[in-house]
Amino acid sequence: MALTTSPGTRGTLFDDVHDDFRESFRRFLEAEVVPNHDAWQEAHIVDRSLFEKAGENGFLALPVEEQYGGAEVTDWRFNAIMSEEAAYAGVQSSWMGPMVHNDLGVPYLMAAANEEQKARWFPDVVAGKKILALAMTEPGTGSNLAGIATRAVRDGDDWIVNGAKTFISNGLNADLVVMAVRTSDDPHKGLSMMVIERDFEGFERGKQIHKRGQHANDTAELFFNDCRVPGENLLGEEGTGFAQLMTHLIPERLGIAVSSAAATEAVVDLTLEYVKERTAFGKPIGSFQNSRFQMVDAKMKAEVTRAFMDRTLQRYIDGTCTPAEAAMAKTWTTEVLSDVCDICVQMHGGYGFTTEDKVSEYWVDSRVNRIYGGTNEVMRELAGRTLRL
Prior knowledge:
Strand content: 15-25%
Helix content: 40-55%
Shape: globular
Order of helices and strands: HHHHHHEEEEEEEEHEEHHHH
């Protein structure tokens, strides 16, 4: 059973407009996502209709200009609300596709697309008729963006692209793939961004990658074999790819952190209810000292994480959040989530290890949060450089 509670307004971070949006989005999840979540988990992909329904209800591409059908809402708190509510409802992997569309794809287009590109792509992106993916990771690069090897070579006005990307969320559903490619040998200035469209010759999707968790989040390999990309699909100036990637990594990592903090709260609430109802030796298991201590530890971690995350989110809204702070937020929240999920699975006993119990879904889904968006080891390295050690 999905969890549908949420904390509502927290201090001065959210106002009435945000609360109204939260309630509207919660109703959308309950009507359109929760009933389909198990089927999408089994299929390892959400139906494309989810994107169109999200678009119809105003939950896609919020910053896009009104002339292209968008709402011109640049307040990132609305994105955070959607990530939180998906976690509270226990449907994170089903909402992962639209989240990738909103939080990973749209920002690149908003920042670098020219007017012709906006007119060509944005109306369908807002409506959910063209689904976005972001392709950075390659089989041999992982978190090392400077090591990207997929290469684009000029051929007249076009580019010829060869290479491969892996672990791409929305990899199967995507119609527009925002992709980092190498256009010269310089590790940083040699990277450029371009948009690969579904029907481009030489663009092939590999096998669907079945993961241990987050099953409804379709993930695939992408291959480019002499893929011809029109020059007008270059996103921004040639050689600006690394700068674009660095600019947008802060909100990507904060998005993971926001979702992880909310999932921590959700799994604690779920388990508190369970330990009050489940009995052993004639009394609720929550009444035993060890259970109380474990749940206190989990609750403390959730509360501390919420305070830290809200402060970091406020700093991002104020424009003062640094890459190091985003890295630390991503590291802290994802590791707390894993720790708390482990406690909560243990509290559920054998049932916590079954697919019938929601706590096990939180548990397996949480593990990858410490890997994607940059591994936590890389996050520590980024943050450590600011300590001047």
